[in-house]
Every structure is written in structure tokens, then in C-alpha cells.
Amino acid sequence: MTMNKSFTVMIGGLGGQGALLFGRLLAEAGMAKYKNVLFFPNYGGLVRGGASECTVVLSDDNIASPVALEIEAAIAMSIPSLQSYERRLRPGGVLFFDKAVTPGKIGRQDIKVVDIPATQVAIELGDSRAANLIFLGAYLKATSVGSVELVDKVLEKKLGGGRREALLNLDKKALRRGTELV
Q: What integer pLDDT is reported at residue 43 of this predicted model?
């Protein structure tokens, strides 16, 4: 008998950092692997600069609620997200963040903390806005949630062809670079 798996992750940052794009890509890629997928965005009225977060649940079982009180993993791209997610992670959970962008002391000893230099690496790749995809690649590598190839298919569907080809190539490079940082 195989065990069903369920994964809950929260991604948070400020508007413009790509937290919602991260979640949407993960959710759409997850539809190829899981029976039930939930993408639950939450954002303020501002496009850039306001709080922005989402919850993604990937499961073979039914998903009871979009509200996750204790989460298994979190990606914090802002200081408020870092503070909130540290408290909300269940013991043994994983917290991904970029110490250069979200400085702060992590007080909990019962969670795994992964510092990913996503912003610096994104700048080296040519665009700081690719930091979210670096985080996504790192998350995929650190968990058994899905594969970079599944996300590639979603990106190709959204960005393939024409002038967007350069953006697609950058996104794919960022995803793969993220897997190398874990």
C-alpha cells in the first residue's frame, strides 16, 4: 500500500518580488503529479511594495481548508514574512530565506533554516527579479514535491516563443541555479 503525500508551503514577500508567481508555477506544475492542488493568494491593494503571500497545498488526499495554521515549509522574501513564518512552521519544518534581503535572527532550534543567496545570484544571472525562481528551484530540490522539468513545462506554456524567449531562458537558468544552492 502506498502512502499519500501532502505538502503545504507558504511563500511571502512584497508586491513585485514574485511570491504569487512562485506559488502559481508550483501549483500548476503540481497538477501533473497530485490529485488535489490548492493555490490560495493573499495580497494587499498595492501592486509593488505591499504584503503579498500565497499558500500552496499539493495532496493526493482531499484538502480540507486553504487556511494553514502550521506549515511544513516557507519561503520568506521579506522581513514581515520571515517573522510570521518562523512562528507558524511546525517542528521539523523548513524555512528558506535570503539573509542579505531579510536580515534577522532565527530563534527556533526545531526547524531547518536554509539561507539561499537568491537576490545576488539573480543579479549575476542578469535580473534581480529572477530571485523567486531561484527560491523555487531550491525548494524543489530540498523537497520531494516535484521537479524542475514540470515547472519548465508550465513556463514554456506561459512564455514560449517570440520576444519572451529570453525571459524563458533566464527563468529556466534561475530554476536550475536554485537547485545547486541547496
A: 82
